[in-house]
Structure to design on (559 residues):
């Protein structure tokens, strides 16, 4: 079995704005991260994924880049970045940078040039189209952040495409000169010693020729519509990724993960089959829509374990032979997993450990999002003014301010699904602002920081932190966790997710109860072979092995 570091690694995602402030301006920064490297080493992570730290006007908190080769003023300098890289490498931790190359900031010099005139050499670095005879937009696509995906630019009287905010113009990947500029930029960072790349919405870089309007049924004239079918997993996306791999990525021993909203298992095999030389893994989103109704993310719907398990199982089986899974339930765009899939009340600690056991015993590379390891929860700000996320604020304006929707029901959806749930400052201790800043935090701290914080976790041998530390230590010693064959058990059980992992003559049994109600499992054949409880989230083994207590997770070695 050829062992690969990116299959065995555990990645820790840092959202720099909310991790640790070092200069009292209320915004996290690189020196703040440097001051916390011993904490990351203690947890045992192998890679740090750093959300964007490049120069940015922060319309979308760094996912709108105005200079790809310099550091955002609020975060520090290139020297600070070099110090961070050195500090990580000195602790045996690799650095994965976040590449946002589907779009740039509208303050990037390329766009400033591009918008200045129709014959500017940079015009075709972006996607410009004339309006219709009556000035209507080139098509009916909506932006992910509400409103249309086209902005009319007065200077040249044309529209430019922005799938996200109007300050995030889409780059034109059809332009080989633009692609070469991007490859040069990537080489700049890899030559500095970067060990990995996370590629933001990388499956959106190829748009269908002609940029056709969406024609779903019942659309009124001028009504906006989701155009994803015309730019997700588009016609040339694999060609572009293979070209990037051939020209740049293949020259380095690095880890790559593409963020691919809307990708299916079949798409993911094309992105991650090693023979195709594109990417090593992708972030799929199917399980992130398990609690969305027909009207999308803000149409909050109940989820079931059966639905979640069916999705995860499909991906485990689908990528068993070709390709590779990333494993996550949390990141800077998603609500906190213990609130969403566990119980952030009475069973917060137990259910957080159960979810961690899922992520670290399925087959794939596990990702930990900052604060997940201490069971940080969603937040319920009482007023929209306390929120900062452009996605939240644009949606609220469209639905409530302009659309007249009930503010409380929209706020309720924000409490459940809003991205700021994941962006409240990291909770380090019970001092003011949770030890995140001496100043005024850019986003309010979750009021539960007094009880939920790193200092408390490190002082409690039964904390979620030490459970994660044990899972990561187990992974380092047991190749079965990365490479073992996955096999589902109890496919119909409504509350239990049970599976085995097998590598050579070693076999583990994983039992997860997703309910606060105790369950009994009928797995006598497997349980009769259980020789050792490898890890569990209760202090002791259950009175009988068939019993699973509330949110209980147990991993047995089978003889
Ligand atoms: O996210 C892409 C994306 O689709 C997310 O916007 C996600 O679907 C949505 O936020 C769920 O509500 C990436 C980055 O992770 C995100 O932070 C950026 O806002 C976005 O791209 C644009 O760069
Ligand atoms: Ca700061």
């Amino acid at each position: 079995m050829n062992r690969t570091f990116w299959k065995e690694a555990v990645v820790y995602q840092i959202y720099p704005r909310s991790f640790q402030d070092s200069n009292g301006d209320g915004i996290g920064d690189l020196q703040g991260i440097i001051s916390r490297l011993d904490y990351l080493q203690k947890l045992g992570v192998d890679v740090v994924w750093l959300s964007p730290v490049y120069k940015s006007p922060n319309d979308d908190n760094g996912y709108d880049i105005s200079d790809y080769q310099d550091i955002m003023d609020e975060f520090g300098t290139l020297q600070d970045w070099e110090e961070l890289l050195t500090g990580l490498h000195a602790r045996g931790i690799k650095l994965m940078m976040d590449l946002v190359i589907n779009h740039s900031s509208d303050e990037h010099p390329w766009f400033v040039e591009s918008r200045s005139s129709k014959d500017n050499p940079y015009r075709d670095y972006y996607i410009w189209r004339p309006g219709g005879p009556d000035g209507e937009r080139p098509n009916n696509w909506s932006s992910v952040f509400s409103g249309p995906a086209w902005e009319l630019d007065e200077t040249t009287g044309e529209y430019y495409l922005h799938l996200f905010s109007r300050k995030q113009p889409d780059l034109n990947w059809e332009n080989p000169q633009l692609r070469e500029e991007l490859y040069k930029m990537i080489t700049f960072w890899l030559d500095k010693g970067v060990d990995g790349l996370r590629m933001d919405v990388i499956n959106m870089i190829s748009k269908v020729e002609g940029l056709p309007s969406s024609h779903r049924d019942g659309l009124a004239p001028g009504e906006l519509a989701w155009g994803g079918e015309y730019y997700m997993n588009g016609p040339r996306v694999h060609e572009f990724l293979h070209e990037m791999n051939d020209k740049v990525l293949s020259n380095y021993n690095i880890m790559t993960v593409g963020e691919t909203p809307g990708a299916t298992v079949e798409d993911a095999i094309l992105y991650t089959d090693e023979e195709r030389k594109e990417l090593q893994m992708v972030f799929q989103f199917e399980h992130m829509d398990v609690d969305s109704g027909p009207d999308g993310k803000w149409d909050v719907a109940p989820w079931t374990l059966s639905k979640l398990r069916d999705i995860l199982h499909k991906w485990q089986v689908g990528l068993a032979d070709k390709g590779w899974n990333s494993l996550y339930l949390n990141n800077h765009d998603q609500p906190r997993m213990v609130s969403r899939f566990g119980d952030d009340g009475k069973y917060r600690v137990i259910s957080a450990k159960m979810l961690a056991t899922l992520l670290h015993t399925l087959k794939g590379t596990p990702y930990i999002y900052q604060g997940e390891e201490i069971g940080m929860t969603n937040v319920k700000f009482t007023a929209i003014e306390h929120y900062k996320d452009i996605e939240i604020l644009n949606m609220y304006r469209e639905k409530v301010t302009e659309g007249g929707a009930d503010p409380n029901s929209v706020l309720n959806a924000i409490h459940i699904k809003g991205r700021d749930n994941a962006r409240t400052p990291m909770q380090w201790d019970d001092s003011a602002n949770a030890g995140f800043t001496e100043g005024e935090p850019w986003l309010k701290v979750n009021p539960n920081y007094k009880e939920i914080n790193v200092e408390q976790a490190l002082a409690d041998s039964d904390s979620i932190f030490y459970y994660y530390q044990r899972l990561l230590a187990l992974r380092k010693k047991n190749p079965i966790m990365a490479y073992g064959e996955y096999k589902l058990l109890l496919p119909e059980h409504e509350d239990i997710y049970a599976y085995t992992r097998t590598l050579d003559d070693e076999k583990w049994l994983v039992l997860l109860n997703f309910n606060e109600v105790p369950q009994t499992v009928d797995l006598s054949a497997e349980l009769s072979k259980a020789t050792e409880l490898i890890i569990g989230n209760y202090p002791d083994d259950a009175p009988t092995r068939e019993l699973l207590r509330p949110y209980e997770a147990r991993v047995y070695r089978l003889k």
Q: What stands out?
A: Residues 240 and 548 are 48 Å apart (CA to CA).
